[in-house]
Amino acid sequence: MKAFALCLLYLALVLTTTGCKALFSSTSQRSRTPWHNFDEAQSAFDKVIPHKTTVSELRTMGFDPMTTPNIKILTYLDLIQRFVPNASITLDDLQPDVKACIESKDCCHAYEMDLELTDSKRYGNLAADVFGFNRKTKTTGWTFKALIIVKDDVVAYKLRSGEPNVDRLDKKTKPLGPLQELDNIILKAIGAF
Question: What is the rounded distance in angstroms from the CA atom of residue 57 to the CA atom of residue 102?
Fold first, then answer.
């Protein structure tokens, strides 16, 4: 009982000195990258010119898997999985530069980047959040994905996607709070018999 009273006293002290907002959890996802925002990544990507930019030029632009983190090197087999995911798509359906690269086999490889710089913060009623009744999360930041296909040490094709402005609100409501999950526990207990 004494330990419980000490815990309550500690909780009261924390609440009165920090405020409820400071007690909400937050997460941050940061891919190491030479670019600080979406526009910088896009600007670097725009300088890559198919059939002109060489692998050595890619390195000076920041697209070097040996020195720039979070860049994957893909083989032509990886490209087949990406561009021909099922039997309804054939090589003839692909963009001509992609098709030629895949058909050249070992003369073909690609660099794939998947950058995510986001922050997620919970907000709302602390008690409702802690006990699982109502959880609200705001996520902001940006994502950038790029694929650069290289054939014979020259860029053959490039493709990019991403979200320049991530601004998402997630809300999870459980009217019964922590009791909401009891149905799974009860079903597992019944299944054990």
Answer: 22
pLDDT attached to residue 162? 93
Residue 133 maps to a domain: no
Q: Which residues does residue 29 pair with via DSSP β-bridges, in sequence order?
A: 118
Please tell me whether residue 32 adopts helix, strand or coil conformation. Answer: coil
Structure tokens at 86: 């099922």
Taking each helix axis from N to C terminus, what angle separates 76-83 and 96-103, rounded to the nearest 10 degrees? 140
Cβ-based burial of 24 (10 A; exposed 0-12, middle 13-18, buried ≥19): middle
The conformation of residue 49, written as its DSSP 8-state character, comes to -
- The answer, yes or no, to whether residue 17 has pLDDT greater than 50, is no
pLDDT at 109: 93
62 within a domain of the structure (yes/no):
yes
pLDDT, position 43: 94
Percent of the chain with pLDDT over 90: 32
CB of 80 within 8 A of CB of 102?
yes
Q: Are 76 and 114 in contact (CB under 8 A)?
A: no
Domain assignment of residue 131, yes or no: no
Instruction: Please list, in sequence order, all residues whose beta carbon lies within 8 angstroms of the beta carbon of residue 176, skipping any fewer than 6 positions away.
Output: 182
Candidates 38, 188, 63, 190; CA nearest to 117 is: 38
For 146-175, write each residue's pLDDT tens digit.
Answer: 999 999 999 999 999 999 999 988 888 877
Residue 147 forms part of a structural domain = yes
